[in-house]
Amino acid sequence: MSAIVEESDTPLNVLVCLYDGMDSMDAIGPLEVFSTAQHDSKNPDTKAFRTIFAGPAEHVVTAQGVTFSAHVDYAEAMKRLSEIDVLVVPGGNAEAIIKAKSQPISIIKAFAELQQKNPARERSLMSVCTGSLILGDSGLLAGLSATTHPDYITKMEIICSNAAQRDMAERCDVVEQRYVVNNLRFELGEDEESNPHILSRKELKEQKRRKSSISSPIEERGNGANSTNGSRPVHARKGSMSLKMSNNRRDSIIKRASLKLGGLRVLTTSGVTSGIDGALYMVGALVSDDAADEVARKMCYTWKKGMVVDGIDV
């Protein structure tokens, strides 16, 4: 469906958490997607997102030797956290961050706490690659499903298990997928099997069974094959108009508040370039599928779909 553009459609704020040793692509991939997304593909004045870099210092050096300049430091970002709609956590040097207990750990926790205190606003937390290890160690993945770089699946399981024991909380279901979404905003409909945004437990078990017979550690899942573009028909509410409804309807806010983390959408992605796929999902959810497809077209990129494990119309 196409986004409904109104004069009040101001760009959503995306905060990317920078730190030394992070992977460059983990930030650049989502940045390219968010900076390209528009409500109207023919109108460059309808930018859907505004991206802000936060870092521990003015300059941050990545694992590839690239220097990023932060727009704000973490202290300033904490003050402006209520303005942020999407928080992006790159991977690359995650284990060092966990060991040092340094940023972006505090801002991630504060963002999640903000959603729990104020579920009236729809917020999303997105990690790329091993950035999910930071989320897992922080205890934010308790009772959720998540993924990470395939080489770190076992490490992720250990980190999440230790966090669950430490916090006396539920375990995280760690799976190998392109990306995993929790606390989405979709009306699932009566026939969940026909909804392309849901991977049923039966389908998940079948994928796990097949995994041992494929050579690639990353199993990519399409959205079905009942249409020419590979997507099955769906009547789920998506896009900027439903985002407005989600933030304004009292029943939506009540439903969101009843979810884990106050309904904070938590999206974890697999290795490196999967951050592009996760960001495209975010564009589809917050703007429109048409907008996401247009971004992928401009980037000459084939959008590889992930999985969603639960949903509620909020």
TrEMBL record:
Ranges where the DJ-1/PfpI domain occurs: 14-171
The organism's place on the tree of life at top rank: Eukaryota
Query: Which parts of this chain are annotated as the region Disordered?
Result: 197-247
Signal peptide, first to last residue = none
Name used for this protein in its record: Class I glutamine amidotransferase-like protein
Q: Organism, per UniProt?
A: Dissoconium aciculare CBS 342.82
